[in-house]
Structures are given as C-alpha cells and as structure tokens.
Amino acid sequence: MKPLIIHIVLGAIIFAGMSACARQERVATEHPVAIVDSLQQIVAEEVQARVNRTEAEWGVGIMMDTHSGTVVAMYDTDSTLVHAQSAWELGSVVSPLALLAAYSIEPQGWDSAVGVCRSGFEYAGRVFRDGHACDAVYSLSDAIATSSNAAFVQYMLRVFGQQPALLPEILAKWGFEFAEQDSACDAMLETLEYAIGYHCTITPVQLAYLYSCVATGQHLRVPANGMDSIRLGLHHVVWDNDLGTASINPWDMRKAQSDKVQIAGKTGAAQISIGGNYAGNHHRLSFVGYFPEANPQYTCIVILNNPKNYGYYEAGADCGIPVRRIAERISTE
After folding, report:
1. Vertex 295 angle, CA 326 and 253, to 5°
2. Which range of residues forms the domain containing residue 164?
3. How far apart are CA 159 and CA 167, in angstroms?
C-alpha cells in the first residue's frame, strides 16, 4: 500500500526558500529487499531479546545496505511485518532531518548557539521541554547529542519563522506523511511539532534510507557543510559522554558506544497517541545508526513500542544497545 502524502499548499514564501525547496527532488520510497540469512538471524535475536527484557508491546529491527538502500534484514515481532511496514511517529529521531531541510534553505549562520532552560521554550502557548532538562547553551551538535527539543525549535524558528510551510513540503519529498490538522492551528506551531517528530509519520525502512543518505551524502540536496554538521551531531549522540543520549549511562553502562565498531546515530522517544491524546506514560522508542562511522556499510534501526519503563524510559539503552550488539556481531564475523 502506497503511503498517503498530504500535499501542503505553500503560502507566501521568500524567493530563496522557494528556490531551495524546488531543488529538492522526491527521494526513493520503495527499496529493494534481499534478506541475508545470517544478518536476519542476528537482527531477530537481538531485537527479540530486548523486547523480552523490556516487555515491549512489539519490536522492529531493520538493516539496510547503506550505499545501495537494499534491505538485508527485517524483523518484526509480528510475523505479518505489519509494524515494520507501517508509518509511525518517532519523535526527535526526525529532528536531524528537519535541520538538514533548514540547511538546504539557509546554508549559513549556523555557528551561533542557542540558550535553553529547565522550564523549556514556549511558543504560541506550547512549551517544548527536554527529556534531559537543564540550563545550558547548546551548539547545533550539542542539541543533536542531547536531543534538545527546546534547542531544535529555536533553530527551526530562525529559518522557517516566516515560511512555515516549507518544512513539511521538503519532508514530504523525503517520504514523510502528515496528519490533517485543524485549519485554525498556528502554522508555525505545526511546523515545530513536525520538527521534533510529532503529527508526522514515516516507515522504519524509509527512515533507515534517509539516514543512509546522511551517512553517504547522497540523494538529499543539502550543502556539504550541513551534512558535516549533522554527522558531527550524530557522532556526539554516541561518543559525547557528557551529552550523548546513546553514549553511556550514569552507571557507566554502554548504550550504542562500542569498543569494537564505531557507530553514529540518533535516539528518538515519542509519546503514543491514545484516543487522540498523547499519553505521558506510553512511549515509542527508537535508535537509528550507521556503521562503521568512517566508512558506513550498514544502517540499522530498532524500534520498541511501549516498553515497561517503571518510571524511567531510555531510548539510548533500550534501542541503542541492540543496534550496538548487532554491529559488534557483524564486525566480528
């Protein structure tokens, strides 16, 4: 079934933004599948082990050849693959892609940092809070590393503040779908929600493909400095032990960080909509990464739906650990 894409009608936009959007071509949304039995077994074992450990409702693991976009492993705890083939809200794993879209419109001016505070950042009555809230000043790579929603939305406002329709226009070309919104909603507020992965959905395979494009620098028409900045942030997610959401935890447990293979990637945590309302105690967690970082061969995504968190949820551990273990097992074969 082909995904339904709601086409956003552009309002008044500046010429530079319109030109940048026009340069973005639709990327592939259908990808070849050539399952490699040995890789399939590794992905299945690691995802199922994590599902069992966390008591998640379901889990998905996808592995893709980074250069060709071929799916080489696809595991779903449901044998029909319904979760692997459906589109989901995945939270801030979307944010680096939104930042790439912003770079494609405005390639300059990204050196200045933004300030965040424990109380969050308010726009149009909506307070954007961080899972790791603190008072800090974040560079772009810091914001990616610590998954700071408060920082992300400030960067988005810099570029899309006068042209909010451009972000969904670009993301739609990259395979995202968007929920129909109330016409009375603030257009910029909708765009900020999209930028942190809400009210927009994407399939796990398509997300793996987009991160493969980031790893290789292919297919997404983004300036080289933009790709370099985002890749630096994805590196810090795993390797910055102070900020990285998939580095180590306070008890020195490794998440996606490995001494056998270098991984770069991004965590995501999205509240799950139940009856039209987001439930604060129900989360969909994810981690998508590529490895080896210096010469990527594979891109892997793991998603866990509503794992039992006992008051504490952790995408970096719950999804980063199985990706790390998959990468380590492949690197030693």
Report:
1. 40
2. 78-299
3. 9
Beta carbons of 240 and 139 less than 8 angstroms apart: no
The pTM assigned to this predicted structure is 0.91
> Residue 225 and residue 171: Cα distance in Å, rounded?
20
List pLDDT tens digits, range 254-300.
999 999 999 999 999 998 877 766 766 788 999 999 999 999 999 99
User: Which residue shows structure tokens 């001494």?
Assistant: 259
Three-state secondary structure string covering 104-125: HHCCCCCCCCEEECCCCEEECC
Kind and range of the H or E run holding 52: helix 37-54
Does residue 194 contact residue 200 with C-beta atoms inside 8 Å? yes
Q: Is residue 314 part of a domain?
A: no
Q: Specify the pLDDT at position 184.
A: 59
Reply yes or no on whether the pLDDT at 240 is more than 90. Answer: yes
Q: What CATH code is carried by the domain that includes residue 169?
A: 3.40.710.10
Distance separating alpha carbons of residues 177 and 4, to the nearest angstrom: 7
Task: Give the list of residues 6+ apart from residue 88 with CB closer than 8 angstroms, or none.
Answer: 201, 202, 203, 204, 270, 284, 303
Q: CA 32, CA 14: separation in Å to the nearest integer?
A: 38
Give SS3 for 137: strand
Residue 312 has pLDDT above 80, yes or no: no
